Amino acid sequence: MKETDIYDIKDNVVELIGKEWMLITAGSIENFNTMTASWGNMGFLWGKPVVTVYVRPQRYTLEFLEREECFTLSFFSGKYREALNICGTKSGRDTDKVAESGLTPYSPADGTVSFEEARMVIKCRKLYKGKLGEEEFIDKSLLPKWYPQRDLHYMYIAEIEKVWVGR
Question: pTM score, two decimals?
């Protein structure tokens, strides 16, 4: 993979995250967890290019996100959809979902973790963490649909530090 500038990325971000999905990965190559996500944002905030990711409190990846300063977002071609399904439906607490998915972990830089099969990897450094609150929802109809168990997401805003493309 080769490093590139975030401003050179031409992907439609809504399609990239919402339809193609991504893996959020945190930890070291020796001890990490990953999860599939289809909720997120990319944009510009506080004078920086940023991403926003959302993680439910019961997700094992949350423990790794809490510990680490940085994490990666990995994007894949459509032929890896089943691998993303596995990483989104299995818990790293209970199984080696990465081995089951057939993905190959590697460290692109600075101790972060991604996967050799990714077509794009974004290294992110956390800037802000918050938790969605029921009281802040203007459209309360979203709560029973998306949060029937009231397990509202944690939100992380992170600076995009590096981007690699290839494969």
Answer: 0.95
Terminal CA-to-CA distance of the chain, rounded, Å?
7
DSSP percent split of the chain into helix, strand, coil, nearest 5: 25, 40, 35
* pLDDT, one tens digit for every residue, the chain (167 residues): 899 999 999 999 999 999 999 999 999 999 999 999 999 999 999 999 999 999 999 999 999 999 999 999 999 999 999 999 999 988 888 889 999 899 999 997 678 999 999 999 999 999 999 999 999 999 999 999 999 999 999 999 999 999 999 86
Instruction: Give the three-state DSSP class for 34.
Output: strand
Dist CA 8 CA 120 (whole Å): 12
